[in-house]
Design goal:
Elements: H1 11-23, E1 33-39, H2 47-55, E2 58-64, H3 67-76, E3 83-84, H4 88-96, E4 131-142, E5 166-169, H5 172-182, H6 192-206, E6 209-213, H7 217-222, E7 228-232, H8 233-242, E8 247-249, E9 255-262, H9 271-281, H10 284-294, E10 297-298, H11 301-309, H12 313-319, H13 323-326, E11 329-330, H14 337-351
Parallel strand pairs: 1-2, 1-3, 5-6, 5-7, 9-11
Antiparallel strand pairs: 4-7, 4-8, 4-9, 4-10
Helix pairs in contact: 1-2, 5-6, 6-14, 10-11
């Protein structure tokens, strides 16, 4: 994102922050590299130069589009990362499968700034494997010039009136989550009858879709190539900069509220460098810069509070939904292995 919601940190404050970070890198790898694997459009990449200037550590940065892509890449081996940023349910799965290192929080003092609700979150109940990065919600992004009437329901995503103008998530958990919510079911249901019903709904929807997308939704919605799509709230704020006609709504049936976390994968070659990077990113000033660029809410409570105070009403309502809206939201939980396998089978059947 290319926002200017707030004025970023002063040079003096940032210099002090970086000096502290530099003091924590004495035990870092001689390679002086940190391999970071993150979602697209999800960090202020200018911070990498600041990090290197003070620590001597070069950030080698790459991106993935879905949690499942991240998981598959790590499982396949052959790629080495020191910091990854999976979502809540995937953090839980990776802990379960022994895919994460415990973080030495003596090297991450800024973790003390993270909100209490993320100190030992549901996806990492001992708080040993993750440091909260950002949280946000999923909703509908639409172009009122192409959609008639008020949009309040996921039902618009299944409306034949918009055939060829609908963009759907290209990942199983989000796509099935939307179908389940529209049908009145939990995002985390393990009821196979309900899941089968969701699959049939998605099969029907497939015939009216323009396509399944992830980050390509940016160009399509910004360019007026589609009428409506399901995506993340913070990314809507980015799209809005390039197409001021777009609108966002969290549907009446409810939606996903997600939390993403900084983690270190098992066998990371530069673990100390990874911890230095996590400490840097969880600092208040860097958290503010990342919030400014991404449109998501940092796990750093001090940064979140300061950022919220500077927002206009519309942006505030999207980034910080009120309690009534949040009551309709659910996080994704790590599902049992048999249900995960069922998801894979159903997704392959849908796409096939």
């Amino acid at each position: 994102m290319k926002k200017t919601i707030r004025t970023v940190a002063t040079a003096l404050t940032l210099a002090l922050l970086l000096a502290v970070t530099a003091g924590l890198t004495a035990g870092c790898s001689a390679k002086e590299v940190v391999q970071v694997f993150n979602w697209g459009e999800y960090i202020d990449e200018s911070i990498f130069a600041d990090f290197k200037a003070q620590t001597g550590i070069t950030v080698k940065y790459s991106t993935f589009e879905t949690n499942e892509d991240l998981y598959a890449k790590l499982k396949a081996g052959g790629a080495s990362y020191d910091v990854i940023i999976p979502s809540d349910y995937m953090v839980a799965r990776m802990i379960e499968e022994g895919m994460l290192e415990k973080i030495d929080f003596a090297n991450v003092p800024n973790a003390s700034l993270i909100s209490e609700r993320y100190q030992k979150p549901y996806y990492d109940p001992t708080g040993e494997y993750s440091a909260a990065y950002m949280w946000g919600t999923v909703g509908l992004i639409y172009n009122p010039e192409l959609v008639s009437g008020e949009v309040t329901s996921w039902g618009t995503m299944f409306d034949p009136a918009y055939s060829g103008q609908i963009l759907m998530f290209d990942n199983s958990r989000d796509a099935f989550g939307i179908a389940l919510k529209y049908l009145g079911y939990s995002l985390n249901t393990t009821d196979k009858t309900q899941l089968a019903e969701a699959l049939e709904l998605l099969k029907t929807q497939k015939s009216i879709l323009q396509g399944y997308v992830m980050d390509t939704i940016f160009d399509k919605m910004e360019g007026g190539e589609a009428a409506i799509g399901a995506y993340y709230a913070g990314d809507y704020l980015s799209m809005l900069e390039n197409n001021e006609n777009l609108r966002f709504v969290l549907p009446s049936e409810g939606a996903n509220i997600f939390s993403d976390a900084l983690c270190i994968p098992k066998g990371a070659k530069n673990k100390a460098n990874g911890e230095a990077f996590i400490n840097f990113v969880t600092s208040t000033e860097i958290a503010l810069r990342n919030m400014d660029v991404t449109g998501y809410v940092s796990g750093n409570q001090e940064a979140a509070d300061e950022f919220a105070a500077d927002l206009d009403d519309e942006t505030f309502d999207i980034m910080f939904p009120n309690d009534e809206i949040l009551a309709r939201c659910e996080p994704f939980y790590n599902l049992p292995a048999d249900i995960r396998n069922l998801y894979d089978d159903m997704w392959n059947e849908l796409l096939g």
